[in-house]
Amino acid sequence: MKFSEYIQYDATGLAELVRQGQVKPEELLDLAIARAAELNPSLNCLIHAFHDAARARIRAGLPQGPFAGVPFILKDLLDDLEGQPTSFGTRAVRWYPPRNAEITDRYLAAGLVPFAKSNLPELGLMISTEPAAFGPAHNPWKAGYSTGGSSGGSAAAVAARIVPMASANDGGGSIRFPAACCGVFGLKPSRGRNPTGPFEMEGWDGAIAGHPLTLSVRDSAAMLDALCGSEAGAGFPVPKPTESFLAQMQRPLKPLTIGYSLKPMIPAQVSPDAKKALEHTLRLLEAAGHHLVEADPVIDADKLWRDFLTVTSGHVANKIEQIRREFGAQAARELEAGTLSMGMLGRSFRSVDVAAAKEGWHGVRMAMSNYFERFDLLLTPTLISEPAPHGVIPPSAFEAFQMRAGRFLPLGRLLMASGLLFTLSERVLSRMAFTLMGNVTGLPGMSVPLYWTEAGLPLGSQFTAPMGHEGRLLQLAHQLEQQAPWFDKRPPL
C-alpha cells in the first residue's frame, strides 16, 4: 500500500482491508511510522515512540477486534501502557505503570496497534498544547498556532493523517477543544460510559471522560461500542446499551428540536468567526429539516467557573503532593508555574468550599435537565474564537514568576473573593466558555468539523445531548457528515 492509498481510508476501512487480506498490519504500521517521521519534526505532536514493541505485538498475534491491525497513538495521560513511560506532559515525571489502564486494555482488545504517545500540556491542565517539557505542538492547518488541549498532540496526528484516530480524554473540553482546533471529529461520552481506571477512577470528581479523536463518525461509534461498559470499582457504572452505537448511528434520523445559543457559559467574548461557524451549522440543520430555537441555558456564568476551579484545583494539589511523595521534592519543584499556582488554590480552599461548589455542579445539571425537557440537543460554538497563536494562552515569563513567588501563600480564597482570579486565568477560562458545562454535568457532547475560517483554520460546532444519548449525537453527526463531508479536507502540509 502507498501512502496516497492509506489516507483514503478511515480506521474502519483499513481494518476491513486487513480482514480481507489486502494489506498486512505491518504495512499499515510502517506507513504510519514513516508519516510520523516525515511530519513530527515540524508538528511536534508525538513525544515518545515504541516501534519495536508495536511490531512485536503484531508478531504475537492481534485480537480479532473491529480495528485489528490499525496503527494507533496513545495520549500520554491516563491511557497508560505497561512497559512504556507516562510523563503527564511534565519534565518532572517518568512513571512506568504496573499494568495497562482499563481503557488501554480495551483499545488493545479492539486490535489497535499503538506505536507512539502524543504531546500534551502539563497534567492536561491547559487548553493549548505548549508544555515546557516538550515544546508546542503545531496546528497542521497553520504552523505557529495552537492545536488546542489537552489532547492537542492526538488531534494534530489525526488531522495530519499519521493515524486515522488517536486516544484522548476530556476534563474541561480536552476532546472537543482540540477536535475543533484541528478539524477532526471529537465525541465526549457520558460520565461513566467509558472506563477511566484503575489509576484515576473518578478523575476530577467525574469530570474527566475518555474517547478517541477520529476522522469519521463511524469510527467513533464503533470505538464507543468497543470501549463502553462498566469496570471494576466504577463510581458511575453505565451498562452497555441493548443496541450498538454503530447501529444507532445508521438509523434514519427524525427531525429534532434543537436549541442553540451564542451566550457563553463563562464570561467571554465570542468572535465573528465563531458566530459565522454557528450560522453555517444552523443553515445545514435547517436544510436537513430540524426545528431550531434560539434558547440560552439558565446557568450562572460567574458561578460555573468558580465552582469548577474550587473542585478541580484540589485534585491538582493532590497530584502535586503525590509527585512529591513518589518522585521527590525536586520533581515537584520542576512543575510549571501554572500547575503550582493551581495547586496553591487547591490547598487554600476549605472542605466546606468544595461541598458548596459540588452543590453548584448539581445545580448546573438540574438546569440542563430542565433544558432538555424542551429540546433534543443544545448547539453552541465549540470555541469562542479561531485557534490562538502560540504564546497567547500560557502565562508570560513575568506571570510565571509571580505564580512561583505566590505558590506557598494561601491566597486562593482571597483571589476568588476579589475577582482577581478570573483576571489572572481569563485566557484559559474564557476559552472554555462552551465546553466546561459538559464536564461539570457529565453530559455527552461532540465537536463536529463543519467550518473553516478565511485564514484556513477550522472551527467546530458543539452539540450537547441528555445523559446517555450518545446515539442521538452520532446519528446527527453521521447526517452532517453526509451533508457537508469533511474527510477529504486535509491540511496543507
UniProtKB/TrEMBL annotation:
<comment type="similarity">
    <text>Belongs to the amidase family.</text>
</comment>
<protein>
    <submittedName>
        <fullName>Amidase</fullName>
    </submittedName>
</protein>
<dbReference type="InterPro" id="IPR036928">
    <property type="entry name" value="AS_sf"/>
</dbReference>
<feature type="domain" description="Amidase">
    <location>
        <begin position="27"/>
        <end position="391"/>
    </location>
</feature>
<dbReference type="InterPro" id="IPR020556">
    <property type="entry name" value="Amidase_CS"/>
</dbReference>
<dbReference type="GO" id="GO:0003824">
    <property type="term" value="F:catalytic activity"/>
</dbReference>
<dbReference type="InterPro" id="IPR023631">
    <property type="entry name" value="Amidase_dom"/>
</dbReference>
<dbReference type="Pfam" id="PF01425">
    <property type="entry name" value="Amidase"/>
</dbReference>
<dbReference type="InterPro" id="IPR000120">
    <property type="entry name" value="Amidase"/>
</dbReference>
